[in-house]
């Protein structure tokens, strides 16, 4: 099996609605672990891609998240 079959290539866009929004990437595999995190301040935008290493993303704080499925707001 080729590695590219594991990578969906899907992107998300996260726009911080407050200072200190945290985006954490979680690994694939038997044991899910945090492998990277970024902090955004109000108004900052991050474009992130799911890869063969990144299976999930955790977003903490008030942010707008845009995906190919639509948009949603994280936080209170």
Automatic annotation (TrEMBL):
Pfam families: TrpBP (PF02081). GO terms for molecular function: RNA binding. Keywords: RNA-binding, Transcription, Transcription regulation. GO terms for biological process: DNA-templated transcription termination; regulation of DNA-templated transcription. Coiled coil: none annotated. The keyword Transcription regulation applies. The keyword Transcription applies. Residues 8-74 form the Tryptophan RNA-binding attenuator protein domain. Signal peptide: none annotated. NCBIfam families: PRK13251.1. Belongs to the MtrB family. Oligomer of 11 identical subunits arranged in doughnut-like structure. This is Transcription attenuation protein MtrB.
């Amino acid at each position: 099996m080729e590695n590219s079959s594991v990578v969906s290539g899907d992107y998300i866009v996260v726009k911080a609605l407050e200072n200190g929004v945290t985006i954490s990437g979680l690994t694939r595999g038997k044991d899910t672990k945090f492998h990277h995190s970024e902090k955004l301040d109000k108004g900052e935008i991050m474009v992130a891609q799911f890869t063969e290493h990144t299976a999930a993303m955790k977003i903490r704080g008030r942010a707008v998240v845009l995906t190919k499925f639509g948009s949603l707001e994280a936080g209170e």
